[in-house]
Amino acid sequence: MEKAAEPEVEEQAKHKAEEEACEAKRSANIAISLATLAKPFDGDLSAMLRAACEGAIAHDIVEQLVPMLPSDDEFSKARRLYRKSGPETLRIPQKPAESLFVAVVDLVQDGEFEITSPQDLRSRLQLLGDALSAPDASKKIAEDSQTLIKASDGARTSKALAECLRRLLDVGNALNAGTRRGDAKGFTLASLERVAATKSTDASAVSVLDFAARKALTGDGEKELEELEPLLRAARKLELRELEKESTRLARCSAKIAESALAAHPAASGLAEHVMNASQASENASSSVLQCSKFFGEDSVDCAHLFGALHDLVARFQSARLKVKADEERKAKQALEEKRKTPEAKRERRRERRRGRAAVDDVLRAVDAGKK
Fold first, then answer.
1. pTM of the prediction?
2. Per residue in 119-167, pLDDT tens?
3. Burial 184-204 (b: 16+ CB within 10 A, else e)
4. Among 189, 289, 293, 344, which residue's CB has the most CB atoms within a 10 Å radius?
């Protein structure tokens, strides 16, 4: 009878041994991440968790660690399989994910940092990660805000850009003379995109912009456009909503930390100042972009549309100017070649060569005379 029962016992043990605290795919992903994150701690996951709770590691590592923390179900399984006391023999974790979950179980059971559940740990690390990232986030908001402010003020006050727009308007009115569109006083950004791309119907396919770019801009206009173009290019990639969203996130993070046990944590030091700087920078950028949008006749604020249209215009105008310069150089070279082909030019070149040889002969005679 005992021998007949052994296969059933072995089968039950086998099924129990197959039970895992973490699903296979998630376990593999955690193992890949931990291979890098745990290196500074020589693979000691408990030490890594304590350092994270103390705010002693970089915010980007904390942000990577939070998604790997066990859920309530994974935490319960890990505690039952590896740490819960009882008559059953406890297993030893074999995979990095299970080792991490066990380290979380130990942290909770030891009561360190007033953490009583996986959710407490997750909340603490998220708040610490936000606090540690605040200086970089505030700096990024300030830099992006400055880009938007410079692009807005530059576009609104640029005499070179105003001259480009005036030329486009004049050429457009000339082409539309005699029609109801032949006396336009200005145009919207949407129409500007169409005007800049409009081409003649003949074989030359010359665009309106090509006509406008035939003459160099007055003064230092072309240099001014060179300085404005990279600002517009950078500004078209930014969004005010993202700056405002990030600024709001920092403010909420600061409020949560102020109400939590982390209020006196070193990571919270200076957080209020970072929040204030980010908020002020975001408001300044919003004001400048709104002013620029209204200046160009736009009611809504859309950086991609506003700065995209202006950047396309500037970039196309610069491209057209380069084409004009290249054509002028080519024509000048052709004219010079034609001039050299004339009989008089040929005779003059022969006279120049004779004068050159005569001068060399004079030098040589003088040298010979000096030797004597």
1. 0.73
2. 999 999 999 998 889 999 999 999 999 999 999 999 999 999 999 888 8
3. eeebebeebeebbeeeeeeee
4. 289
Query: Which residue do the tokens 């979380």 mark?
Result: 104
Closest C-alpha among 86, 62, 106 to residue 267: 62
Question: Residue 296: exposed, middle, or buried by beta-carbon count in 10 A (0-12, 13-18, 19+)?
Answer: middle
Task: Specify the range with the lowest mean pLDDT, choosing from 29-38, 156-165, 189-198, 256-265.
Answer: 189-198
Residue 226 neighbours by CB distance under 10 Å: 13
User: What residues have CB less than 8 Å from 228, skipping those under 6 apart?
Assistant: 151, 154, 155, 158, 160, 161, 314
Task: Check if the beta carbon of residue 173 is closer than 8 Å to that of residue 183.
Answer: yes
pLDDT of residue 6: 52
